[in-house]
Structure formats: C-alpha cells, structure tokens
Amino acid sequence: MSIAPPLSRASLSQQIRDRLLSRIMTGALKPGDRLVELKIAGEMATSQAPVREALRELEAMGVVETLRNKGARVRVISDEELRQIYDVRAQLEGYASELASASGPALLSRLEDCVGKMRKAARKGDSMAFADHNMAFHRAIVEGSGNTVLLGMWETLNVKMRTMVNVARSSRNLVDLAESHMPIVDAIAAGDGARAHEAAKQHVLDNKPVMTAEGPDAGQ
C-alpha cells in the first residue's frame, strides 16, 4: 500500500472507514482481500484502535467480514443478494412514499435539494457523493412517512453502501439516474399517495441488478 495523506484527529475511524470504502468501491481492494489492522494503521499513521472501529463499521455495512482465526477481509457481495435487497426496498419505499405524500412542503424542499445535489455529483462523475445524496433522498422519504418501524427496517438495508456497489458495477449514466427520481418528487408534490407509491416502487425495481442470459448483470 502507498502512504496516504495524514488524517486529522477528528473522527479518525470515520475517515479510515471512508478511505477503505472508497478503495473497495473502486476495486483497489477486491473481494477476499485481507484487511490487516497493523498494516492499515501504519499506512494511515494512526493507532490500531480507530482502524478496528472503522472495520467494525464496515462490517456493520456489510462490505467487510471477520472470519475466525483469519481476521477481516473484503466481503463478496453477490448480484443475487443485491437483487433481493432491492425487491425488499421497493416494497418499503413504495409504502413510505405513499405515507410521505401527505407530509407537505418541507419534505418536498428536501427532496428537490437532494436531486439537485445528485445532478451536481453526477456531472462531476463523483459516485461516492452521488451515493450520499441518493441515500439522503430516500431517507427523507422514509422519515417523512412518520413510521418509525418502517424506518428501522429500511436502515438495516444499508442503502448507501448497496447503491455504491451498484453504481460501481453498472455502466448507467449517473445524470439519468438522478433524473429518474423526479417522478417520485412530482407525485409527492401532487399529494397523490397511490402515484407516489407506484413511482417509488418502480424506481427501485427499475434500478436493481438484472439477470441476463449469461448470468447476473448489475443495474443501478
């Protein structure tokens, strides 16, 4: 590993997590690669404690796994796993959008802001920033539903990480993906719960990894 720029003292574990996540998403760290605490700590000029915390966070996100007597390694995330998660997301977010359609102008402003930021990140080709703003968009809807049980279930799906995996595997244009959120915004703006439900559900299903004759082929 090359020596990385020095980290600030604030949120060391978060910075280490984000650097490792970026390497995983870009393929610099591949599925099955070992993640050795001491080596990472030396590269990032820090102690092992924040590295250990970063690895725990990545494990909770589902991109790292710790094997007994073998330590941490980059986890293999299959297209089929992504497909199943997107199927569940479609149902949850469809219902959330139906409920959120009665939330009023505050939610609409948040959603429009998120789409604007997605467009900006897409034009720059910044997939990590895109994933951040994409997650913020979908979280705003689920929070806007007012259903805390629904929010808890949705959070277990790690939408940001799965979006990043999907973006990394797909050739779909990010600008087009940003625009694909607008039918949801329009339905919520109209206060049409049934249309919002269908728009959100279809948005997720349209962007899940698809199956080809040759096998799984990730979508968005």
From TrEMBL:
Alphabetically ordered keywords of this record: DNA-binding, Transcription, Transcription regulation
Protein name (record): GntR family transcriptional regulator
SUPFAM superfamilies for the chain: GntR ligand-binding domain-like, Winged helix' DNA-binding domain
Gene3D superfamilies in alphabetical order: GntR ligand-binding domain-like, Winged helix-like DNA-binding domain superfamily/Winged helix DNA-binding domain
Annotated HTH gntR-type domain residues: 10-77
Pfam families referenced in this protein's UniProt entry, alphabetically: FCD, GntR
InterPro entries (UniProt xref): GntR_C, TF_FadR/GntR_C, Tscrpt_reg_HTH_GntR, WH-like_DNA-bd_sf, WH_DNA-bd_sf
Highest taxon in the source lineage: Bacteria
PANTHER family: GLUCONATE OPERON TRANSCRIPTIONAL REPRESSOR, TRANSCRIPTIONAL REGULATOR, GNTR FAMILY
Biological source species: Hoeflea poritis
CDD domains: WHTH_GntR
